[in-house]
Amino acid sequence: MIIIPVKEGENIDRALKKLKRKFEKTGVVKELRSRQKFTKPSVKRREVVSRAVYIQQLVQNQENES
Q1: CA distance 22 to 3
Q2: Would you call 28 helix, strand, or coil by DSSP?
Q3: What phi and psi values does residue 10 have, to the nearest 5 degrees?
Q4: Residue 19: CB partners within 8 Å, gap ≥ 6?
Q5: pLDDT exceeds cutoff 80 at 42
């Protein structure tokens, strides 16, 4: 359970902002969205590989520039 301590006299908008930030950090919303639809294991693997290729290209570009 996510607990957000709210100080006396603190703005409710600020407390909501803290709550949203904590939800994003824990990955609850991302997991909910992923559970709404089924993705085949081959598609998941393809996404992981494409993400790894992209990151590898970024690292290589940074090494070449410096």
Answers
A1: 9
A2: helix
A3: -75, 145
A4: 2, 4
A5: yes
